[in-house]
Amino acid sequence: MSASKSDTGRAYHTQCTGLALETVKARQQDSEITLFGSCFCPFVQRVWVAFEFLGVDYKVDPYKKPAELLEVSPKGLVPGLRLERYSHQEYVQDLANEKTGKSLLPPISQPYARALIRLQADHINRTFVPSFYQAQISGGKEFHSAIEGLIALFERMEKDVLIGGASGEGEERALRRGLGLWVEVENWGLRMLWLPRIFRAKVVLTHYRGFVMPSGDKFNKWLDRLFEHEAFKKTCSTDQLYFDSYERYAFNRPNTSQVANAINQ
Questions:
Q1: Are strands 33-36 and 80-83 parallel, antiparallel or unpaired?
Q2: Residue 85's pLDDT band (boundaries 50, 70, 90)?
Q3: Alpha-carbon distances, residue 3 vs 95, 137, 139, 164 (angstroms)
Q4: Cα–Cα dist 226/209, whole Å
Q5: pTM for this one?
């Protein structure tokens, strides 16, 4: 697809569309947990996907920014999380373990699989996040390299722990959990760390920067499994919302956000 060349002055959206809007409407009952967010923010979406994946009860406020948000995030930054009865986020994971038996990480009895997840998360936080925002503003190639680095990390892990590193069937199952949907297991856990940005690369960077996603049979199937996961689909708006909301980044409008200002410095 050719890149969009002109700034049309579109404003960011303050209300979800598509399946995400249906989820918002279904999550308006009072709950012990309230998620404050914005409908286009990848930081918010990765928390939102986690809630849907864990199956816990929650209420979501997609962008009203009420006074209650300032109680948990004085600068109004999102995502913000209000817990009526508890003051620590571990409660959400503990609640999920109790209510649904689901976890973002493999069981504590599988420490190596948990370590693999954390290694992937470190790659995302150090490489994916800054290069994604850089690509939005300047079209740099660093984000493409970040995706290729993640693929190389998966391939190395698969070779090390599944082909020659597992000592038995039980350990192999544990290690597969660390690789997540890369090797077609259901417990995908912290995959939402990078999923919102890969999704936006596919939608937004392609539209504004002519971005071409890395390709390969295994990578393509991996993306399909991620994008088709029910927990993720329920938090996605229509493509037009992302086109509109990210135009200000693509054309580097002044004072777009604190992130944009930091990149421009």
A1: antiparallel
A2: low
A3: 45, 13, 11, 44
A4: 23
A5: 0.82
Q: Residue 175: name the closest of 195, 192, 156, 193 by CA.
A: 156
Residue with tokens 């996040």: 129
3-state secondary structure of 230: helix
Tell me how many degrees the CA angle 139-132-223 measures, rounded to the nearest 5: 110
Per-residue exposure over 88-105, b if at least 16 CB sit within 10 Å of its own CB, e if not: eeebbbebbeeeeebbbb
Rounded CA-CA distance 107/101 in Å is: 11
Residue 23 · residue 49 · CB < 8 Å: no
What tokens were used for 135?
């690509």
Q: Which residue has the tokens 């508890």?
A: 86
pLDDT digits (tens, 9 = 90+) for 5-15: 788 999 999 99
Check: CB of residue 146 under 8 Å from CB of residue 127: yes
Query: What would the two tokens of residue 99 be?
Result: 């209510």
What are the backbone dihedrals phi and psi of residue 81, each rounded to the nearest 5 degrees, phi first? Answer: -130, 125
Edge-to-edge strand list for the sheet holding 80-83? 59-61, 33-36, 80-83
Alpha carbons 103 and 96: distance in angstroms, whole number:
7
37/15 Cα distance (integer angstroms): 10
Q: 96-105, pLDDT tens digit by residue?
A: 877 788 877 7
> What's the rounded Cα separation, in Å, for the pair 62 and 139?
28
CA-CA-CA-CA torsion sign (20, 21, 23, 27): positive
